[in-house]
Write a structure and sequence with these properties.
Length: 466
């Protein structure tokens, strides 16, 4: 059977903002570099579930905007011609003590800003009714997303239990940032709170979360009383103890939702938690392993990948295949170079960690071109796409749900093949001061491209069979 290959490039408006941004980068002398890369379509890695972002903070603010502006913001996020995101993490707010809700005095407003003041659905340690309208803005964004992306995957996650379940009485964390803030006598109450929220979304909106993540960066010392956002430290022993409480309750709830964990900030912490979970024998209670990749070497990423693969190689009906997600990361630095540095992290994550999903932390922010893709002003309801949006689009718009990552021996190339083998996507990155010429060698053909300093290019290869 004779095989021919047609190569075409993508042309869409992202080149203009990128060029405009590069004009603000001082020219630096670099050398000319050439390299050859072979694309072997039989050497395949993970199949992609999609790309995504947390709804935390920005949706709580933007969900209060005019309807038409919300529609535009969501379209830029989920449309195939936009970022093409299809995975979203809904933040179940704990809700701080109502005595702290004065925006001029509240510690979160003095830190991350009013955007980080996530409302809880229950404010008092009594048997009062849930206030299901408390988080209407974030909910509105989530329902808009589901309307435009019926294939969307949703995860629920928590940064902190409600204030009245904490040791300090504050959702920012314990007075001692190395100590747990969830009171042990409130484990059952917190588990019930999380499950009640998940059940409400299924009953009220027909929206069932695929996973429930009860922790956020639990092994760090980031969370402390009167801190700038909700957060809660959990030692590994406490994580294990809480999961043992949550798991049977979730199983008995009638939901199909499974537990994801442990959402650590770095690969070292993720490896520590995974080892502790294995030794405690609770891995059958976990359906998905989440990790952040703010910090960690490629060797640590590969070690975590191998640990998950090892677990899955011995899976049974009691220990099903464990899904691996890169569930949060962001902030590459400054300017276009920072955006491209984040793209390199994405490439490294996909090659060494091999998650089936890769998620950003924030989508919209004020005066922010690193953590976010859209910037503007919450109060005036303004928004504009900037360079980070267009850089990320090179991957997320073209490497779609169901595509499989190819193992390419080049750390500045990301390649993927479509489910039917009819298309190969190549994303080539140059995050250096050098001019780089790459020759991609395919069966029976080749393609040479030259990348200017601090640039990215994507193109597709279409195999034709006769």
């Amino acid at each position: 059977m004779l095989k021919r290959i047609l190569i075409t490039s993508f042309f869409f408006p992202l080149s203009l903002p990128l060029m405009a941004q590069r004009n603000h980068v001082p020219e630096e002398s670099g050398k000319e570099v050439s390299r050859n890369v072979t694309i072997d379509t039989s050497n395949r890695l993970q199949t992609i579930e999609g790309w995504g972002v947390s709804l935390c903070w920005w949706a709580h603010m933007c969900g209060k905007w005019e309807e038409s502006k919300i529609d535009s913001l969501v379209d830029w996020l989920v449309s195939p011609d936009g970022l093409n995101y299809n995975i979203f993490r809904y933040n179940i707010g704990g809700g701080d003590d109502p005595e702290n809700r004065n925006c001029e005095l509240h510690h979160m407003a003095r830190g991350k800003g009013i955007r980080a003041e996530m409302p809880g659905f229950k404010h008092y340690p009594t048997d009062t009714e849930y206030d299901w309208q408390a988080d209407s803005a974030q909910i509105k964004i989530m329902l808009k997303i589901r309307e435009r992306r019926p294939d969307a995957i949703f995860e629920a996650f928590s940064n902190s239990a409600p204030w009245y379940m904490t040791v300090s009485g504050c959702v920012g964390g314990h007075k001692d940032k190395w100590k747990d803030n969830l009171r042990p006598d409130c484990y059952e109450a917190f588990a019930d709170y999380l499950i009640d929220v998940c059940k409400h979304f299924k009953d009220a909106y027909g929206l069932e979360f695929r996973t429930l993540e009860p922790f956020n960066e639990p092994l760090t010392d980031y969370w402390y009383q009167n801190g700038s956002q909700e957060g809660c430290h959990f030692d590994t022993s406490s994580q294990i103890a809480f999961i043992k409480v949550l798991y049977p309750k979730l199983k008995a709830s009638g939901l199909n939702t499974v537990i994801s964990a442990s959402d650590e900030t770095c690969l070292a912490h993720s490896l520590t938690a995974l080892k502790a979970y294995q030794e405690a024998g609770i891995m059958p209670m976990i359906g998905q392993w989440n990790t952040h990749t703010y910090y960690g070497s490629n060797e640590e990423k590969a070690a975590l990948r191998d640990s998950i693969l090892s677990l899955n190689s011995n899976h049974s009906t009691l220990t099903p295949n464990l899904i691996l997600w890169q569930s949060e990361t962001g902030d590459g630095g400054r300017g276009i170079r920072g955006n491209l540095k984040m793209l390199q992290r994405l490439f490294d994550d996909m090659r060494y960690l091999q998650p089936t999903a890769w998620l950003d932390w924030q989508y919209y922010g004020e005066n922010d071109t690193q953590w976010c893709h859209i910037t503007g002003d919450f109060k005036s309801q303004t928004m504009r796409r900037h360079s980070n949006y267009y850089v990320r689009q090179h991957v997320t718009r073209h490497i779609k749900k169901g595509y499989t990552i190819l193992n390419v021996d080049d750390n500045q190339t990301l390649a993927a093949i479509s489910p039917d083998g009819s298309e190969i996507i190549i994303v080539a990155l140059n995050n250096s001061r050098d001019t780089v010429t790459i020759t991609y060698n395919f069966p029976n053909t080749k393609r040479t491209i030259t990348l200017k300093p601090w640039s990215v290019e994507s193109f597709n290869v279409i195999p034709l069979y006769k």
